[in-house]
């Protein structure tokens, strides 16, 4: 299958398919050739709608080298390497991962803890340096600085200001990150639209909160972090375990939001631990990783069928993600396995055999097809390849940013310092210290020294009490 832009090929389409984009469609013409037609964005977003991005990655490898110039780090890493690193000082985290995902789709990265999901997510999001091998392209173009503004990354531990309200968080972000060509009103409207889109109306005036400050709920917090990222209309949205810590209903609601974001033309990639069945069936694609290697990549719904064709069938009713994680760890209790893997009673031996078997099967059965599709037959149209290299509109200059940041910091800090509890604490301590020194006998230097010793002991006793 080849993808060409309509400008490149002027043939009448025979089949038209929806790629999940409001402004793009695939037209199959002949000999399996496919064209992408992209319409001009008239949505009133000042040409700021998401640009369709096809992400492809092939044979991606990542190693961490323990050697460091910093002596302390070097000592720590050398101990770590002796304890757990493979091949001396080097840890091989990703071992040749291939895949792709397009606009309108959600790709779920699943696998046991430590399998390399977050590492792959960061690598694809251009957030990883070091020993990276393989090929990662965005519309068949390598990563470049112009892509930065087209990528949104929601990390597992969000960094939001606890004393700002949800609305303030988004409005300050809009002023900082949106292009200077947009008026103040437009920026406010954009923040307003995000609040509605992410159903944050109920908590818009509530403080975000943190460890010591009461604030919004975990789900609202996640949605605020997503809102912060989608303010600038990214084409690619990466999320690291967005549903962790949420109950199943809040997690499903969040997935519906991600679905809608994808439907609007974004490419969404998310790591997820153990989604419920309802959530699992919302994913378009699945990449299942075991010990840094792929054991399945393809349509999420077809994954169960693939594993049953290999002889892995659940013997009791199981949630698909539970089943997939079990086989990715080689834990096959209540799962029937192919005859070739039977015979051993040592559980650890079975686990190793199962993982190796699945890794080999993927390499021989699925990977060649993926590679063929990725780089030999499916090509992004020239128009998309060029658009991705154009920098998005200019944001505010450093003086404007300095002013906005100062305002934000002032609001955040002033609320912290003028917090009622903190204020009464400060006044209380001041009154107490004043009373301690009131009418103290400090006429001479010796008397002053005695008083200082006495007061210090009293304060210490008070603090201990
Ligand atoms: N900077 C680092 N130095 C050493 N090892 C690392 C580093 N970063 C990641 N690793 C290791 O790489 C492996 C994969 O880590 P990663 O965070 O990608 O796993 P994960 O699948 O996302 O796990 P989890 O689901 O628990 O978040 C782990 O064994 C981890 O310890």
Main-sheet strand order equals: 10-11-12-7-13-14
Stretches where pLDDT is under 50 for at least 5 consecutive residues are: 1-47
| Terminal Cα span | 76 Å
Helical coverage, percent range: 40-55%
Q: What percentage of amino acids are in beta strands?
A: 15-25%
Instruction: Give a list of the ligands.
Output: adenosine-5'-triphosphate
CATH architecture of the largest domain: 3-Layer(aba) Sandwich
* Mean pLDDT over the full residue set: 81
What is the CATH fold-level name of the largest domain?
Rossmann fold
CATH superfamily of the largest domain: P-loop containing nucleotide triphosphate hydrolases
Q: How many individual β-strands? A: 16
Order of helices and strands: EEEEEHEEHEEEHHHEHEHEEHEHEHHHHH
Radius of gyration: 28 Å
Q: What profile does the largest beta sheet have?
A: 6 strands, mixed
Count the DSSP helices: 14
CATH classification, class level of the largest domain: Alpha Beta
The best one-word shape is globular
Category by helix and strand content:
alpha/beta
In total, the number of domains comes to: 2
Task: List its salient traits.
disordered N terminus; 6-stranded mixed beta sheet; 20% strand; binds adenosine-5'-triphosphate; 14 helices; globular; Rossmann fold; 16 strands; alpha/beta; 4-stranded mixed beta sheet; 465 residues
List the helices and strands and how they pair.
Layout: E1 2-5, E2 15-21, E3 24-28, E4 33-38, E5 55-65, H1 71-84, E6 90-101, E7 106-110, H2 117-124, E8 131-138, E9 141-142, E10 151-154, H3 166-177, H4 184-197, H5 218-230, E11 236-240, H6 248-263, E12 267-271, H7 277-280, E13 285-290, E14 293-299, H8 303-310, E15 313-314, H9 320-328, E16 335-336, H10 347-377, H11 382-387, H12 398-417, H13 420-437, H14 445-464
Parallel strand pairs: 1-4, 7-12, 7-13, 10-11, 11-12
Antiparallel strand pairs: 2-3, 3-4, 5-6, 5-8, 8-9, 13-14, 15-16
Helix pairs in contact: 3-4
Membrane topology: Multi-pass membrane protein
GO molecular function, one term: ABC-type transporter activity
Domain ABC transporter: 55-316
């Amino acid at each position: 299958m080849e993808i060409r832009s309509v400008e490149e090929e002027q043939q009448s389409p025979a089949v038209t398919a929806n790629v999940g984009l409001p402004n793009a469609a695939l037209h199959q013409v002949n000999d399996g050739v496919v064209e992408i037609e992209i319409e001009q964005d008239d949505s009133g977003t000042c040409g700021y709608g998401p640009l369709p991005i096809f992400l492809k990655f092939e044979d991606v490898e990542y190693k961490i080298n323990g050697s460091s110039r910093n002596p302390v780090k070097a000592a720590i890493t050398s101990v770590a390497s002796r304890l757990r690193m493979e091949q001396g000082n080097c840890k091989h985290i990703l071992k040749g991962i291939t895949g792709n995902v397009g606009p309108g789709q959600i790709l779920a990265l699943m696998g046991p803890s430590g399998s390399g999901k977050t590492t792959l997510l960061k690598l694809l999001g251009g957030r990883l340096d070091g020993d990276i091998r393989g090929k990662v392209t965005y519309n068949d173009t390598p990563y470049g600085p112009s892509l930065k503004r087209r990528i949104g990354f929601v990390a597992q531990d969000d960094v939001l200001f606890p004393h700002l309200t949800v609305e303030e968080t988004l409005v300050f972000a809009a002023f900082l990150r949106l292009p200077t060509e947009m008026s103040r009103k437009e920026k406010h409207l954009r923040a307003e639209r995000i609040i509605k889109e992410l159903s944050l109306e109920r908590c818009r005036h509530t403080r975000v909160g943190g460890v010591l400050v009461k604030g919004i709920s975990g789900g609202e917090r996640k949605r605020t972090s997503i809102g912060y990222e989608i303010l600038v209309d990214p084409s690619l949205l990466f999320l690291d375990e967005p549903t962790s810590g949420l109950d199943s209903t809040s997690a499903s609601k969040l997935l519906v939001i991600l679905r809608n974001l994808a439907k609007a033309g974004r490419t969404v990639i998310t790591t997820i631990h153990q989604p419920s069945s309802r959530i699992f069936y919302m994913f378009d694609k699945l990449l299942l990783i075991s010990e840094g290697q792929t054991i399945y990549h393809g349509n999420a719904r077809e994954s169960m069928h693939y594993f049953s064709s290999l002889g892995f069938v659940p013997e009791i009713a199981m949630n698909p993600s539970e089943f997939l994680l079990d086989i990715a760890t080689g834990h096959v209790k209540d799962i029937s396995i192919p005859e070739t893997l039977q015979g051993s009673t040592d559980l650890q031996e079975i686990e190793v055999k199962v993982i190796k078997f699945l890794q080999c099967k993927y390499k021989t059965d699925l990977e060649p097809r993926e590679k063929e599709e990725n780089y030999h037959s499916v090509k992004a149209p020239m128009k998309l390849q060029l658009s991705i290299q154009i920098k998005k509109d200019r944001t505010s200059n450093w003086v404007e940013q300095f002013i906005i940041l100062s305002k934000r910091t002032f609001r955040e800090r002033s609320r912290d310092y003028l917090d009622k509890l903190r204020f009464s604490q400060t006044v209380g301590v001041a009154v107490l210290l004043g009373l301690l020194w009131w009418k103290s006998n400090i006429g001479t230097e010796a008397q002053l020294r005695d008083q200082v010793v006495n007061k210090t002991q009293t304060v210490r006793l008070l603090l201990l009490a």
